[in-house]
Amino acid sequence: MKAAACVWAGQEGLLGGDMLLFLFFSGFGPFGEHTVNASWIAVQELEKLGLGDSVDLHVYEIPVEYKTVQRLIPALWEKHSPQLVVHVGVSGMATTVTLEKCGHNKGYKGLDNCRFCPGSQCCVEDGPESIDSIIDMDAVCKRVTTLGLDVSVTISQDAGRYLKPPPGGKG
């Protein structure tokens, strides 16, 4: 975990320089039958390991609640003005670390932990259809591979919409 995270943080020369980097990583809280979310456990481990003296690392557990996310994420950006934010998710189907090139704003039909789903099916009202990362994920993937780390990394063009519709198909 530390080696892969260091690639992100510049410890292995991706960002370089002696500047202090301000980063925040988030893992998600429990949802559905998952009483503990592995993404939050991973982020806590990263905090324990640290990323070196040149990285001011902050970690947050993000509740699986649309309204909380709409309020909390912008507040964290406002508070910290980070150089990099990494939202760590979990997938029961993934066999590698998957780097997402984009995230969706529209098409959410699943209920959150508060049994809520926005009527517009959008995370951010009047927001774009999707948000593309400005990070060159292909370069990150290649860098991790060339470092010879014991980690498999792949690229995804579609982050999906993790909250699934409840039985009957209506959110």
Automatic annotation (TrEMBL):
Q: According to its UniProt record, which reaction does this protein catalyse?
A: Release of an N-terminal pyroglutamyl group from a polypeptide, the second amino acid generally not being Pro
Q: Which domain of life is it from?
A: Eukaryota
The main enzyme category here is hydrolase
Cellular component GO terms, alphabetical: cytosol
What's a Pfam family this protein contains?
Answer: Peptidase_C15
An example Gene Ontology biological process: proteolysis
| MF GO annotations | pyroglutamyl-peptidase activity
Q: What is its main location?
A: cytoplasm
Q: Where in the cell is it found?
A: Cytoplasm
Active-site residues, Swiss-Prot/TrEMBL: E100
Q: Which UniProt keywords apply?
A: Cytoplasm, Hydrolase, Protease, Thiol protease
The record's listing under Gene3D superfamilies reads: Peptidase C15, pyroglutamyl peptidase I-like
EC number(s) recorded for this UniProt protein: 3.4.19.3
Please give the InterPro entries that the UniProt record associates with this protein.
Peptidase_C15 (IPR000816), Peptidase_C15-like (IPR016125), Peptidase_C15-like_sf (IPR036440), PGPEP1_Glu_AS (IPR033693)
Family note: Belongs to the peptidase C15 family.
Q: Function of this protein? A: Removes 5-oxoproline from various penultimate amino acid residues except L-proline.
* Identification of the protein by name: Pyroglutamyl-peptidase I
What organism is listed for this UniProt entry?
A: Neophocaena asiaeorientalis asiaeorientalis (Yangtze finless porpoise)
